[in-house]
């Protein structure tokens, strides 16, 4: 048997319980059972889920930046780059709008939180006022100008995905336009990208623990 065939057979023969999706499903079921029968103990496990979410958020912005920059810079046709960038923003805006519509429908039909009998006096008035003001001031112009970060670094420090996407596209186009001069930067970014994707693979091994919490 050839080495390739042996590797393929080895992959096929992996026990089902070694697959990540199975481990995550088991963790969700166990976590739900613990939360139902032992709610106090289940609450104490919440930091596991919070920690995993933070780990994932930690790598989202760099992965988006590296993927988009290396993808755009690898194209030599600037016109094609512009079309791809326009499509990327178009898809993002369309699906963001759809998500907003679905959220509004669910909020008005399901009415989450209805019946909990929460005393309004216990709510943080400052936070409520801040959210209300932000919602009132939201406009299309404000949304578009909000895509532009104050600095390149602030896009990553605040974790604003739209701003990271904007910076990534501009930097990728600039890197593509300088041609051979940008090859060392491209090589460096590809190496960093490989390292980050390996980091993501490592973090995903902790997904069952995060799902359990």
CATH architecture: Orthogonal Bundle
Give the tally of structural domains: 1
Describe the largest sheet: none
What's the CATH class, please?
Mainly Alpha
Strand elements, count: 0
Stretches where pLDDT is under 50 for at least 5 consecutive residues are: none
* Measured distance between first and last alpha carbons: 44 Å
| β-sheet strand percentage | under 5%
The ordered H/E elements are HHHHHHHHHHH
What is the number of helices?
11
Mean pLDDT: 79
CATH topology: Proton glutamate symport protein
Overall SS class: mainly alpha
- CATH H-tier superfamily: Sodium:dicarboxylate symporter
Helix content: over 70%
Rough outline = globular
Radius of gyration: 23 Å
Short description:
This protein is mostly helical and 213 residues long. It has helices at residues 3-12, 20-37, 39-44, 46-73, 78-109, 125-137, 140-146, 152-157, 161-177, 183-204, 207-212. The mean pLDDT is 79.
């Amino acid at each position: 048997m050839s080495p390739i065939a042996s590797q393929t057979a080895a992959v096929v023969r992996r026990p089902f319980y070694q697959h990540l999706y199975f481990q995550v499903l088991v963790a969700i079921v166990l976590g739900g059972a613990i939360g139902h029968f032992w709610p106090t103990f289940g609450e104490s496990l919440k930091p596991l889920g919070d920690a995993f979410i933070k780990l994932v958020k930690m790598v989202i912005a760099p992965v988006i930046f590296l993927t988009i920059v290396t993808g755009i810079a690898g194209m030599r046709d600037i016109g094609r780059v512009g079309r791809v960038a326009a499509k990327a923003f178009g898809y993002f805006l369309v699906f963001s709008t759809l998500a907003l519509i679905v959220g509004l429908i669910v909020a008005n039909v399901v009415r989450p939180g209805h019946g909990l009998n929460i005393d309004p006096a216990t709510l943080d008035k400052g936070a409520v006022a801040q959210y209300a003001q932000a919602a009132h001031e939201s406009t299309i112009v404000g949304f578009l100008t909000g895509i532009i970060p104050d600095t390149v670094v602030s896009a990553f420090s605040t974790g604003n995905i739209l701003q990271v996407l904007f910076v990534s596209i501009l930097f990728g186009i600039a890197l593509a336009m300088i041609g051979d001069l940008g090859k060392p930067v491209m090589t460096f970014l590809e190496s960093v990208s490989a390292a980050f994707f390996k980091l993501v693979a490592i973090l995903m091994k902790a997904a069952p623990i995060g799902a359990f919490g």
